[in-house]
Each structure stands twice: as C-alpha cells, then as structure tokens.
Amino acid sequence: MQHLRSFAFFFFAILIKVHAQPGFQANYDESKVPPYTLPDVLTTTTNVPIRTKAAWEKVRRPEIIKLFEENVYGQMPKSYDRLTYSIAHKNTSAMTGKATLKEVTIEVVNHNKPIQIHLVLFLPNQRKKPAPLFLLINNRGKDNMDPTRAHKSDFWPAEMVIDSGYAVAAFHVSDLAPDDTAKYVNGVLQLYPEQLTANDGMKAIGAWAWGASRVLDYLEKDADIDAKKVAVVGHSRGGKASLWAAAEDPRFALCVTNCSGNTGAALSHRRFGETIGRINTVFPHWFANNYKKYNTNEDALPLDQHMLLAAIAPRPLYVTNASKDLWADPTGTFLSAKYAEKVYALYGLTSNLPTNPPAINQPITLPPIGYHNREGEHNLTAYDWRNFIQFATIYYKQRK
After folding, report:
1. 236 belongs to the catalytic site
2. Strand 167-172 with 131-138, pairing
C-alpha cells in the first residue's frame, strides 16, 4: 500500500503543477477551439503533391522526420562505438513455470563514456519458435516491472502477455534520462554532449526513444526473440517516446501510444486541453529548445502530430484515450489518426476507423490503425493491454 500512496501523492503533485500554473486555463470547450489549418501530410513544404508510395518514402516522409527533428524532438544520434550485453540473472521457472526471466544489462559506449539500460524480459516457455514481443517504455515506478513478480501491476501485466503467447519486456526511462528538469542530462546526453548546446538537440523524450532502439539492437541478437515482431509501447510521456521511436526506427513492427496527448498523438493546432506552451513550461527538459518558438504560436508550427502518426505507415499503429482524460484531447487524438489514413492508403491499406470517434469502450482492433477511448482516468490498464494484444494478433495472422 505504501507504494500506492507514494504514487498517488506524486501523481497528485504533478496534476497540481500542471494545472495550477499562473495565468493558464485549459480549454475543454469544443466551441472555443479556434479555427486552424493543418499542414497536408501529402504535400511537401514546397507545395508538391505526393501521390505515390515511392514519392512518400523518398521525399515527403524524410522531410517530415527532419521537420520533427528540427522543431520538436531534436536530433536522433544513430552511431555509437560499442553495444554489449550480459545476462545479469536468468530464471527458467518464472511465473510458476510459465516463463523464462532474463534480466539483461545493455551497455552502450560512445567516446569512452558508457550508459547501461536494465531490461526485464520474460519469454513464454510454451513456444516452438522465437517469440514476438511487446516492449514497454516505463515512465512510472520501477516496481511496475518487478522481475520477481511479488508486485504485479496492470500497468505492465506481464502474465497476461505471456499467457497470450508473446514475450514481454520493459526498461525504465531513468536509465536514459531521469525525468527531471536538471538531472535529465545524466544519461544518454553524456554520450552526445553536443546535443545539450544545439537548439535542435535531443532531450529527454528523444533519449527515451533512442533507448528503445538500443534495446531493439540487443533483441536482434537474442535468438529467443523474433526481432521482426517487436511492438514498442508507451503511456503518456512514454507514449510520446514510443511514437518517436517508431517513426525514427522502422525496425519496430508495431507502435502503441497510450493516452499520449500533446506532442504525442493529439493535434497541437486544436488548442484543447494541454498546449505546447504549457507542456514546454512545465516540462522544459522533454523537447528541443526550438519547440519553445511555438509556445502560444501553434499557427506557425509547420507540422502536427498526424504527420508523425503517418510516418509509421505502413506498420500498424494503435492509439488510445481515456474518457476522463480531457487534458490529452481525445477528439484531437482520434482526428490525428484519421488524418494519417491517407498515407496508409498509399500502401493499399484501408483503415477501419469510423468517421466519428467511437463510443467509450468500443475498441477498433483491426489493423492498420487501432483506436479506443476507455472509460476512466489517465492510465495504462489491463483493458488497454487486452486490446493491444488482440490488435497485434490480428496483424500477425494477416501477414502469414
């Protein structure tokens, strides 16, 4: 109970900090959303229309990634000197014999500076071939990924995932960049110090996404994992990172972004709930310095999140909201996914999203774009995970 009370206090403190900033009142009234014009995902910055898959992949998609690197998430360093890993602990009879536990230490070295990512990985013992995997970017307490399973959490229901035939893994964001306005520099950014002085330099969200790719580097070396079937999952700020990881790294087979809100899956131009100015004020360590140019200046933003969602195509994408989490703009999130549809269409993929947002607890679990708005608060729950698993299972069966 103590960890629950501690988390409740922490979350309440964050809510006070976010919502009680002087002079800021969130808009929760659709009638007060100002008129806005979104950049067309299939028109280049020089007004050239994109009509083919080849033009999308060679011209527009790279342009979109560059826009996000320069204006929002910062650069994404691709090179490093060395990656090694070791199995710190292994238990072939975890979860009462259903799973094998591997606690993996992944060490990345660049310019003689190391960082370590501590991965908790469970494999289903009832498998006849390498297992597909769900990888969680854990932005909550480390006890959510307890390798002993003395503490179990719906935030990371590892037993449910194992019972469904998938491997499941998680790492904590603090290994890459502590979620703190001062301490975020203590991690990945020590390997790339030039990022700290660049206006388009990577900060915490980028560091977490970078870490997901380094975990995938390891997973490609693990014979027990089907590295071509790795889904990256994130909640809230972790969901912002999962989107950026999947957009930057096409090796991720599937992306899940849960209640990711502003600068996640929701449209920034709508100015509903959390805004760019608010997120940059409260969390100045998340995004590149250039992003602050758009505080209270959304109309000048040369991109929006529907373009990031589209950059994941043709890979499947699952997006969620919660009914009481208006701060994360459920309508703007759904619209963002809808506006990404026409890029999936370039690949001959037909979205199953309805014209209007579906009713509460009416999930759309047919690929290529899944969506649900769950009853309840801002959280990651067993209900969410059941739908992620169903979505992935349908997709992998379609590929056979």
Report:
1. yes
2. parallel
